[in-house]
């Protein structure tokens, strides 16, 4: 009887020794399968000028590093990461189309550019940016369950610009809000000068000194120039900004008779729509978190994590 029990025990032990490797093998296979599925669903971004497509989160790292000072508080960097991720996915249709690494879209610095820019500070700066990306991984901004056009800019003139004020197209989540802390930004105000001869090489019609006192300004609700009129000539504020290459559409043109130069003074830096980066930094310094910052600058939105496998 004992011999029979021992025989059964030996057989069971042999069976167990056979089953365990199979079980572990199946577990590894399952884990590998999950990992493969995640990789298969990963979104890649095609950046113009880059040789290969870039994983979404790696791309967002390069955008945050290029678009926002690394000295900013982490919550501001996190807000920037979520906005940049949303803008990228919306602009590229979830990676199906290429995006330019320019100020007209989103500036992007690859790892080599970041190393060159930060030199000896690279390890610490990279760690800070990557933490902000990882802590917001996959998070995007939605309105009515659709990605928003998450526009952002450096510095407002004290109020952000609405989508309607910028383009004439109203978007419920891009309304004008106060951002008075932007006045402490180093980019808040600027003055640019030209000689009258230089000035007249820019414009299609020649200006006389007396013309500068005849300028008529028409402002929108955010205090930016909607249009500029001189006699029968009319230009939009955006046209003047592009023509003169000035920081914003909150501007004032004058002629200094003492220096013989044309002066254009501006307030704010950028188009003014959506999140102000310096405003985000001010809110972060006051203890606001990334979600609070985003809900302030983008109205009635939701912050959710995307499921790349459903795209």
Explain the overall architecture:
The protein is of the alpha+beta class and about 300 residues long. The chain has three domains: about 1-40; about 45-180 and about 275-310, no CATH class; about 190-265, no CATH class. Helices cover about 40% and strands about 15% of the residues. It has helices at about 1-40, 55-65, 75-90, 110-120, 120-135, 165, 195-200, 235-245, 275-285, 290-295, and strands at about 45, 55, 140-145, 145, 150-155, 190-195, 215-220, 225-230, 235, 250-255, 260-265, 275, 300-305. The strands form five sheets. It has a three-stranded antiparallel β-sheet with strand order 4-3-13. A three-stranded antiparallel β-sheet has the order 6-11-10. Strands 7-8-9 form a three-stranded antiparallel β-sheet. Helix 3 (about 75-90) packs across helix 5 and helix 3 packs antiparallel against helix 9.
Short description:
By secondary structure, this protein is of the alpha+beta class.
Q: What is the topology?
A:
Blueprint: H1 2-41, E1 44-45, E2 54-55, H2 56-67, H3 74-92, H4 111-118, H5 122-134, E3 139-143, E4 146-147, E5 152-153, H6 163-167, E6 189-195, H7 196-202, E7 216-219, E8 225-230, E9 233-236, H8 237-244, E10 251-256, E11 261-267, E12 275-276, H9 277-285, H10 290-297, E13 302-305
Parallel strand pairs: 5-12
Antiparallel strand pairs: 1-2, 3-4, 3-13, 6-11, 7-8, 8-9, 10-11
Helix pairs in contact: 2-3, 2-5, 3-5, 3-9, 3-10
InterPro entries: Bact_Sporulation_Assoc, SpoIID/LytB, SpoIID/LytB_N, Spore_II_D_firmicutes
Protein name: Stage II sporulation protein D
Organism: Lysinibacillus pakistanensis
